[in-house]
Hints:
single chain; Rossmann fold
Amino acid sequence: MTSFTPGRLDRSAAFYVAGHRGLVGSAIWRNLAAEGFTNVIGRTSQELDLRNRSEVFAFFEKERPEYVVLAAARVGGILANSTYPADFLSENVQIQVNVLDAAQKYGVGRLLFLGSSCIYPRMAPQPLKEEYLLSGPLEETNQAYAIAKIAGILQVQAVRQQHGLPWISAMPTNLYGPGDNFSASGSHVLPALIRRYEEARVAGAESVTNWGTGSPRREFLHVDDLAEACLFLLENYDGAEHVNVGVGMDVTIKELAGIVAATVGYEGSIEWDASKPDGTPRKLMDVGKLESLGWKARIPLGDGIASTYEWFKENRNGFRN
């Protein structure tokens, strides 16, 4: 049994960020550096394949991190999830089981597992409360990924129960920001819209056609806010139940498209292809639990989109197609 007393983490202790080059992991890395952590550890997928159990155990045996944030995952939008469900399920479960098992064996004192809002049932009441987990059927277009993330939550709970380790889980809403995936085939909705409208603006396109009807509602959290929330939870929360991380308000995809178009300066018409899937009608997080602990998101959507667009323009030459 490892006891946990809420308070400031040791800034000199070894802190492993799994997935430190991704959207979430890179933001967590930046925040830890800004907060004075001096021994933050990261490995690229080329240096450490988290799907390889023996490699993961050897890494933990050598580095012996005191703190871990598990932000590594195979991620993608509706198209990627629908096309490669077996890969999304298998690879994410492998990553989670390997890291969590190794962390338990080598005595990681504090661990945060990051999931996704897609863990909640497709037709769950809104806003989504933590207690709605496993209360109904999942959205079919990303259920393989959701099942993998649910397995991670349950493993963290099982480790708490069986081994007494003060590990926790957090479920962020839709994320965006610097370091996002802007690829044409694998990106989520917000970065996909930024790239689509910027390319249309440059090309002088008269219209842009988006998937679906534009009616689903989505909540968007800047990844820098998430990074701050992660450290806040590690220093202030110890409970078996996962914690939602979001802003507590949402917009329709049609409204989002309008904001993005205005931000990039695209003045053509916006069309919608209703033959394409919309996905879950709404995914608004209830963030009352997190706010009651004393944390609240601070970056407005419009400001966050504007800064993300600037980052996109500065880094576009390195993007995947």
